[in-house]
Amino acid sequence: xxKTTQPNSMESNEEEPVHLPCNHSTISGTDYIHWYRQxxxxxxxxxxxxxxxxxxxxxxxxAIAEDRKSxxxxxxxxxxxxxxxxxxxxxxxxxxxxxKGTRLSVIA
Amino acid sequence: GAGVSQTPSNxxxxxxxxxxxxxxxxxxxxxLYWYRQSLGQGPEFxxxxxxxxxxxxxxxxxxxxxxxxxxxxxSTLKIQRTERGDSAVYLCASSLRAGGIDTQYFGPxxxxxxx
Lengths: 108, 115
Description:
The complex is a heterodimer of chains A (108) and B (115).
Chain A: E1 9-13, E2 18-23, E3 32-38, E4 45-50, E5 55-56, E6 61-64, E7 70-75, E8 84-91, E9 102-107
Parallel strand pairs in A: 1-9
Antiparallel strand pairs in A: 2-7, 3-4, 3-8, 5-6, 6-7, 8-9
Chain B: E1 5-7, E2 10-13, E3 19-24, E4 31-37, E5 44-50, E6 53-56, E7 65-68, E8 75-79, E9 88-95, E10 105-106, E11 110-114
Parallel strand pairs in B: 2-11
Antiparallel strand pairs in B: 1-3, 3-8, 4-5, 4-9, 5-6, 7-8, 9-10, 9-11
């Protein structure tokens, strides 16, 4: 399985932008980059995904490096409700393979 | 619309007992996944179904674990002769298909405690 590397934890002030990095140097040409997050005591929740181009949706933006070996999830204005573990996952025609993710803390 | 539901939300059992965990996927989703999550870890894949058949069961830890999806909708994860190490949150997810582009929708999980 293609692997990703994320920082264990990050901290942000409320209403500030947050950039969550992910390295995936062994990505294959057909792998999509997916981001999920898991709030306390809940199942994971889809955030965003992309293949080559940057993507925006109502929750976040995904910036993908030109060589696709890294990506960054951008939360434009962090709120207390964004405190969660964020997982960066490479996905082909296979189930999701979760790492330990990045635990994001948001300070009021 | 209704999301993925799982029952029971909590299950406490004794070592050696048999348990069944149920998952109701989103209507129309052909792919269904089971994951297990231990404290402080990310979810770990167990098995996934495409329709009624198990497309990949490589994550099942041993033959005490079994899952079925007889009509291509509801799925049941069955654990025989439970052990204390089986204690975890068992998560179910479904998706429209099983491709790289497909989003998985997760249920709230069943917390299994084996005493």
